[in-house]
Amino acid sequence: MHAFNPLTWFRWIGEFIRCWFLGIPWRDAPKAIPAVILSMVLFTTAFIAFSGGAGWRNRLLDRQLRVSLDREDFPTAEIVIRRQLEADPKNVDLIHRFALVREAQSFEEEAKVLMRQLLTRRHLPAAKWLLENQIIGKKLTDFSPEELDEVGRVLQLITEREDENLGAKRMYAEYLIFEQRLSSAIPVVLELSEVEPMRGLQAAALARQLNEFDAAEQYASAALERVKEMHKDDPTNSNIAMSIARNQIFLERHSDAIRTLKGSIDVAKTPEERRMLTQALGDAIVAYVTYIEKSPTNTVQERLRVLTMLDAAVKIAPNNPRVVTMVADHVLSSLNEDDEQIATVRAALISGSPAGIAHFIKGTSALMKEDLAMAELHLEKAAEQLPRSGAILNNLAVALALKEDPEYEKALQVANAAIDNVPTPTPHFFETRGQILFRMGRFREAISDLERALPAPDLKRRSHLMLADCYDKVGDADLAQGHRDAAERLKDAEPSDGEAPESKTEDGSQQD
Questions:
Q1: Is residue 127's pLDDT more than 60?
Q2: What percentage of residues in the chain have a pLDDT greater than 90?
Q3: CA 44 – CA 475 distance, rounded (Å)
Q4: Phi-psi bin for 73: left (phi > 0), alpha (psi -120 to 50), beta?
Q5: 415: exposed, middle or buried (Cβ count in 10 Å: 0-12, 13-18, 19+)
Q6: Which helix (H) or strand (E) holds 503?
Q7: Helix residue ranges, H only, 334-476
Q8: 48-52, 354-358, 384-388: which has the highest mean pLDDT?
Q9: Any residues with CB less than 8 A from the CB of 36 and at least 6 apart, and which?
Q10: Which of 146, 239, 374, 468 is most deeply buried (CB count within 10 A of its CB)?
Q11: How many whole angstroms separate alpha carbon 229 and alpha carbon 243?
């Protein structure tokens, strides 16, 4: 029974240990000291050798790395990091450090590959390196689709990890808008609006593009309230006043925008600010006129109201290009109006316009009436006053090409200038140059311009007919027949009085 009693077992074990301890030859113990020391040394060495990168070995390597980097001894730094990576090959910080060392040794491509690998593991320092070295300083249009995807991942990671990094957040918003990911862009823009209140209007514009009209109004209204609060603290700040007016125009509160700008003009600090606000006031009036024109009514009173507003706009901002263009459009479109009030306001509008636009109106009117001599006279005067106006130059080119003794070379130079002076030339500009080249017998060059005129519905059929003639001249009968067939299909929708080449003025009137 004693063999199964735990207390008996403990007593036996205790007796064994006591007897073993008493049996040790303590007098000879000093002889074992070297063996004990050797065992401790061997144990310590084995622990260091097989500990996997902790302890003094890593501290020694880190110290060597710091010294080599301080001395810019990059080859030594590379050797040290490689040793560290042998022990911990998946350490993202070590890989990032190695990439930086390789970059310092002019191995940029290898560094780029390593940073991209780290990006897949959502390593923030690698993303910031790619932003600084591969993205900043380039336009989004410079990147391929694959590179754009990488740009998006870099900016998204930085924006998520560093909420206070406004520069990266702005770039991310720009990227999302460029990629037409408007739903994703709106929250980012709204975050920016907390520190940049006018971003609220940008978010509103994006929401409107998505047909989210209620959200657009909400964002614009919130932005307007914030900017108004800023204006209370700085009532003479012209930029804040401009921001208020833009919000009001977006919300279709045009009268409020006009009053805001007029009040700011009165307290403008410098002549430059006054000119800027005056130009903005002209734009606001043009926006109001455009808004009014959306109304289905087209009564004499409504047209009279529009002309009266434009008369005010041209007096306020005579050099505003939007005002000038709209004045010309409305005066030319009302030339056939017999109403006495409209005729009076129209005459006042022409006389009150800058000399350049007055000559443009008179010259284009003469061109529409086929008075080519008078058209050339006034359009040349207009071009002298407004030498960078594409519409004026285009119509002058038409007049030069259609007169009794055509000046084709000069007309071609003027048509080229019209296209070069506008960011996005209209199809009418290309149609004009195409006709000039056609008349000069330069059919191959004319084809390119006439094809670019096809998107305009009012130019389509005549451009098809001229293209058919051009392809006949260059010996491509199949394409020539294709364009004739296309013109025939358009005949009922867009009747024509002949197949002779024609020119169009910028307001859309035809000149045979």
A1: yes
A2: 25
A3: 93
A4: beta
A5: buried
A6: strand 503-504
A7: 340-352, 355-368, 372-385, 390-402, 408-420, 427-439, 443-453, 457-474
A8: 384-388
A9: none
A10: 468
A11: 12
Cβ contact 113:105 at 8 Å: no
Query: Taking phi first (over 0 means left), then psi (-120 to 50 degrees means alpha), and beta for anything else, what does residue 362 get?
Result: alpha
Phi, psi angle pair for 510, to nearest 5°: -95, 145
Check residue 207 and give its pLDDT. Answer: 93
**Do 428 and 504 contact (CB within 8 A), yes or no?**
yes
Q: Does domain 54-121 have CATH number 1.25.40?
A: yes
Distance between CA 370 and CA 109 in Å, rounded? 66
pLDDT reported for residue 47: 67
For the stretch 285-333, pLDDT in tens is 778 777 766 655 456 677 667 767 777 766 666 655 666 666 776 666 6
Mutual orientation of helices 271-293 and 300-316 as an angle, nearest 10°? 170
How far apart CA 57 and CA 498 sit, in angstroms, is 93
Question: How far, in Å, CA of 314 to CA of 330, rounded?
Answer: 13
Which residue's entry shows tokens 């006591």? Answer: 18
Distance CA 307, CA 56 (A): 87
What global pTM score does this model have?
0.56
Q: What is the DSSP letter of 2?
A: G
Strands 510-511 and 503-504: antiparallel
Lowest mean pLDDT among 252-261, 379-388, 411-420, 427-436: 379-388
Q: Which of 266, 265, 286 is nearest to 277 (CA)?
A: 265
440: number of Cβ within 10 Å: 16
Question: Do 189 and 173 form a contact (C-beta atoms < 8 A)?
Answer: yes
Asked if residue 216 lies in contact with residue 207, where contact means CB atoms within 8 angstroms, the answer is: yes
Percent of the chain exceeding pLDDT 70 equals 79
Whether the Cβ atoms of residue 230 and residue 197 lie closer than 8 Å to each other:
yes
Residue of 421, 422, 427, 429 lying closest to 398 (CA atoms)? 429
Using the predicted structure, report yes or no on whether residue 491 has a pLDDT greater than 80. no
- Which pLDDT band, with edges at 50, 70 and 90, does 42 fall under? confident
Instruction: Report the alpha-carbon distance of residue 284 to residue 477 in Å, rounded.
Output: 53
**How far is CA 363 from its chain centroid?**
38
Distance CA 391, CA 92 (A): 60
Looking at the predicted structure, is the pLDDT value of residue 53 above 60?
A: no
Residue 48 has pLDDT above 70, yes or no: no
Token representation of residue 32: 């074992």
Is pLDDT at 84 greater than 90 in this prediction?
no
- Phi, psi (5° rounding) for residue 162? -120, 85
CB 238 within 8 A of CB 269: yes
Residue type at 332 in one-letter notation:
L
